[in-house]
Amino acid sequence: MTAPAVSISEQDTDALGGDDSILMRQRRDHARLDAMMNRYHADLPPGELDGLWLDIVQLVFSHAFAEETVLWPLLRRVSPDGETLTRQVEEEHQAINELIARIEHSPDDPRRAEWIQQAFALIREDIRDEEDELLPRLRTAFDDRKLRRIGAAWEAVRATAPTRPHPGVPRRPPGNALRGVPLSVFDRLRDLAPGSGPAARRASLAVAGALAAGGAAVLAVRAARRHR
């Protein structure tokens, strides 16, 4: 693919529509993912390494679900090659989904470390495709104010999206929201550590967030329609 504009990784905050624009929100998530994947190679205790892996998984899937719900439908509407570009990224997301599902279901498999490195390579490829190819087209299509509105809708969905791999969930709305929102409740309860104290407080927040997922999905659909 040939980039239509400068990668968002090479532009400053003002050029990308401000700190709250969808482009800056995406770039921050990508940078956080990259830092966590780099840290995974450090000599960490097993318990800490497991916690870091869970953090990576949670961010990967909530981030991708919000992209597929909010961003890629918009890109298909405003870009002549949006269908081709988003289909490629959706295929990357599906490959990541299937690979991480295999890792999660086979904790004692001797190939686990190899699979994790394959997952990291796919995630980094996906980040580059998005920052170099897809997201610059949103910068071309929308002004700063609209980029901030899209960012708010994306953030609402990301904050309440599924956090675990679900290869059977469709990659496009409305199917992804219909199948993914109920799974978000299940995922976020699974993410909580048992016990009381801080974990119990997190439980109440997680349940509230999961119940808000349906409203977030509706918000995303309405936001996308406003930008037609």
Mind explaining what this structure looks like?
With 228 residues, this protein is an all-alpha fold. Helix content is 72%, strand content 0%. The chain contains eight helices and no strands. Helix 1 packs antiparallel against helix 2 (46-78), helix 2 (46-78) packs antiparallel against helix 3 and helix 2 packs parallel to helix 4. The protein is globular, with a radius of gyration of 17 Å. Residues 194-201 and 203-208 have low confidence and may be disordered.
Short characterization:
By secondary structure, this protein is an all-alpha fold. Helix content is 72%, strand content 0%. α2 (46-78) packs across α5 (144-158), α2 (46-78) runs parallel beside α8 (213-226) and α6 packs antiparallel against α7.
List keywords for this structure.
single chain, mainly alpha, 8 helices
Q: Residue-averaged pLDDT, rounded?
A: 87
| Count of DSSP strands | 0
Structure class: mainly alpha
Query: So what's the overall shape?
Result: globular
Strand fraction equals: under 5%
**Low-confidence regions:** 194-201, 203-208
Outline the biggest β-sheet.
none
Distance between the termini: 25 Å
Task: Furnish the topology, listing elements before pairings.
Layout: H1 22-40, H2 46-78, H3 82-105, H4 112-141, H5 144-158, H6 175-190, H7 198-211, H8 213-226
